[in-house]
Amino acid sequence: MNKAELVAAVAAKAELSKAAAAKAVDALVETTIEALKKNEDVQLIGFGTFKVVNKPAHKGINPATKAVIDIPAKKAVKFRAGAKLAL
Q1: Rounded to whole angstroms, how far apart are CA atoms 30 and 27?
Q2: What sign does the CA torsion over 8, 13, 19, 25 have?
Q3: Closest listed residue to residue 79, CA positions, set 32, 12, 24, 38
Q4: If residue 49 lies in a helix (H) or strand (E), which one and from where to where?
Q5: Distance CA 38, CA 18 (A)
Q6: pTM of the entire structure?
């Protein structure tokens, strides 16, 4: 499902216009990104939790040259599925 399909599905389920549904989806995405940038968890009960995790620096191997490289520490987003998302 791409964004356009998601907007159409939200519009149908919530009985909104596609324009209003698009604003709602965009607002959800933007608010989630802003919260994660502040290192805040975003928990949607039943759906899941988005959490910022710190990945430590480590060594890796360049597959083309087989040379050992240093991979710097970074932050990443981790998603843990909620109970209603169990397939």
Answers
A1: 5
A2: negative
A3: 32
A4: strand 48-55
A5: 30
A6: 0.79
